[in-house]
Each structure stands twice: as structure tokens, then as C-alpha cells.
Amino acid sequence: MTHKRKIALSFRHVLKEDEDHLDVEFWLSKSPSERLAEVVRLRWLYFTSSGKTFPCKIEKVIFRRKLR
């Protein structure tokens, strides 16, 4: 029994060495507010998928070290 697909398969073959460059180009084409919104979305996804509660604020942590 064969079924006919309702949605056609589509893909784009990208070489591994080009992938990083394309990622950088993509994110540089977005506004800073769009990039920040995506970071917040990914943080929310990480916290909720691991069973943790989403923190309201990002904790500011600074490490200082002396330069030689």
C-alpha cells in the first residue's frame, strides 16, 4: 500500500565549511532586538525542557584576572 505525499520534500545541500559563514551572515542580517529575542527563547526552551523554572533575570558574573 503506497501513499502519495501531500507535501513535497525539500532540502538544500550545504557544505560544512560554508555552514558557519552562512550562520554568521544570517544572524548579522537580523536586528539586535531579534537576536536578543532568540537568545531569550533558547534560554526558555533550555530551562523548561530540563524541568527547571525560567529565571526572571540573568545573573551578572564577572571574573577579573591580572594580565601578565
Automatic annotation (TrEMBL):
Domain of life: Bacteria
Protein name in UniProt: Uncharacterized protein
